[in-house]
Amino acid sequence: MTILNTAAATSATVGPAGGVLTTSAAGVSYRLEIPANALQANTLIRMTPIASIGNLPLTGGMVAAVDLQPSGLAFARNATLRIGVTAPPRAGLVLTGFSMTDNGTKAAREVAVARVNEVAVLVGHFTAAGAAFGTSADLQSLSPLPIIPSIDAELAAQAFYSLAAVTPPDVPAMVRRLVEWFDLGVLPQLNDANTDAALLTAVSSFDMWSDTGPFVTGVFALVSNDPAIRDRQTQWRAAALPKLQRAIEGNNQLCSAQQSLTAMQNVLFWQSVAQLYGIANGALQRATVLAQLCASLVVSSSNFPDPVQSDFPNDLDVAFALKFGSSPTPRPMPVRVRFTSSGATFAKSSPSNSDAQGIFSVAVTAQGNSVFMVNLVACLALAGAEDVCASYDVNGNSLDVTGSYAGQFSSRIQTPSGTSFPVNVPLNVRLTQNQNGVSGTYEVMQFNGVRGSVSATLAGRQLLNFSLNQFSPCLGLLSGAATVTLATRTIASTYAGSDCSGTHSNGVSNLIPGSVSLKDFNGAWSIANGSQVWRVRQSGSTVFLSFAAVVNGTLRCAARFRGTVTPGTDVFTATLTDNVAPIDEFSINARATWQPDLTKQRGARINITSGGMFTGLNAYELIGNPPGGCDP
Question: How far is residue 585 CA from its own chain's centroid?
Answer without folding.
Answer: 77
